[in-house]
Specification:
mainly alpha, 68% helix, 381 residues, two-stranded antiparallel ribbon
């Protein structure tokens, strides 16, 4: 296919839904922060800037054949690795963890880029070893690739992102054709590790992480500060929204600032408070559409590498969405994971749009025959 034919296969519907989610997210961030906020007033403008940067990244990534990333994945992995090490050595601390790296121009969170770097690295490794996937040596090497990034994120400390990366590794390993017996053994090992960790009071967790678990299991509903208070206010915000919500900029829980961290972790509660049940259903449906669109692209991908890229990003989006909504509904402990395309966070938004660019790239270079069989452009010629 020539360049024109490739761009004719650009998934404009997927792009349109993602763009609408991003713009709506900026609108939610704006109403969540409110007018004349002394410290957060510039966040909507910053998010808009990062959206523009992310869109440029999306189209640049889409422009070049995704197979180039099979070669560049090691370079990208090394780049992210260096950023994570620098974050550990000189990272800026916020909310009890050193996760941000000051570059002089912008503040970035390398852990967000690490998710895309791991997807590309694992997709490359698994696609090259697809016939040896049911081999402990192959499984071990893929785990080493994962741990090379996870360790530096875990010591920030950032448990939630570490769990996301492990989930991605396990899911991509399973999708690559791992037999059930290996899965059972790995589940048993994880179960034993959790039991031992519980017996020793989870020594690898920071005090605030242990407190989050304690607050989730035994919430103090009378607390007026801390994680329990935030989750209680989130539930009140969601319930107060009713069917159609209080209206944009009219949510009492939001505008009177009872709800904390409302532009980030608890943006879903802002959505429910001002747009109600109907609004949340529409946004979740849009996110589900994007996730399933990624899986559809994976099904039609011309090779295992492209399929694993699309599957990996779809899994990332699905897991983050489930966890963020679960936290707001008090079904899960507070984690700090953002709602894709909606929550405030420049690094998160750019990395998500980079992921969409990769999915678009795979879709643009897949050719579906009239019989529904996907082939590479070269095979069609």
């Amino acid at each position: 296919m020539n360049t024109r034919q490739v761009w004719q296969r650009f998934d404009f519907l997927l792009f349109a839904v993602v763009l609408i989610l991003c713009i709506f997210g900026i609108a939610l961030i704006s109403t969540a922060i409110g007018e004349n906020h002394p410290t957060l007033g510039e966040h909507p403008q910053r998010q808009t800037t990062f959206l523009i940067i992310g869109l440029v990244v999306l189209f640049l990534v889409s422009a070049f054949d995704y197979h180039i990333w099979m070669t560049l994945s090691k370079v990208f992995y090394a780049f992210v690795f260096v950023l994570l090490v620098l974050t550990f050595l000189m990272g800026a601390a916020q909310f009890g963890a050193a996760r941000w790296l000051e570059t002089g121009l912008v503040t970035i969170q390398p852990a967000e880029l690490a998710r895309i770097a791991l997807i590309l690295s694992l997709a490359s490794f698994f696609s090259q070893n697809i016939d040896k996937i049911n081999n402990w040596m192959t499984i071990g090497k893929s785990l080493v690739i994962t741990l090379g990034i996870v360790i530096w994120i875990l010591i920030q400390p950032n448990l939630s992102t570490s769990i996301v990366l492990f989930v991605m590794w396990a899911a991509m390993l399973w999708i690559s054709g791992l037999k059930p017996k290996y899965i059972y053994i790995m589940v048993a090992v994880v179960a034993v590790a959790l039991i031992v960790s519980f017996a020793f009071d989870f020594p690898y967790l920071a005090d605030y992480q242990k407190q989050r678990i304690t607050n989730f299991l035994s919430p103090d509903e009378t607390a007026r500060h801390g994680e329990t208070y935030n989750v209680e206010q989130a539930l009140i915000s969601i319930g107060a929204g009713g069917l159609f919500g209080k209206g944009y900029g009219q949510g009492s829980q939001v505008q009177l600032r009872f709800l904390k961290i409302r532009h980030n972790d608890f943006i879903f509660s802002v959505l429910a408070n001002e747009f109600g049940f109907v609004g949340t259903v529409i946004v979740i449906a849009a996110l589900i559409f994007v996730i399933f669109r990624c899986f559809k692209v994976a099904q039609n991908a011309p090779d295992a590498y492209g399929a694993l890229i699309a599957y990996g990003f779809g899994i990332l989006m699905a897991f983050q969405t489930i966890v963020n909504v679960g936290v707001n509904l008090r079904l899960l402990p507070v984690t700090g994971l953002t709602l894709p395309f909606i929550s405030y966070g420049g690094s998160s938004l750019v990395s998500m749009l980079l992921g969409i660019g990769l999915v678009e790239n795979v879709h643009m270079r897949s050719v579906v025959t009239p019989k529904g069989v996907t082939e590479t452009p070269e095979a069609i010629v």
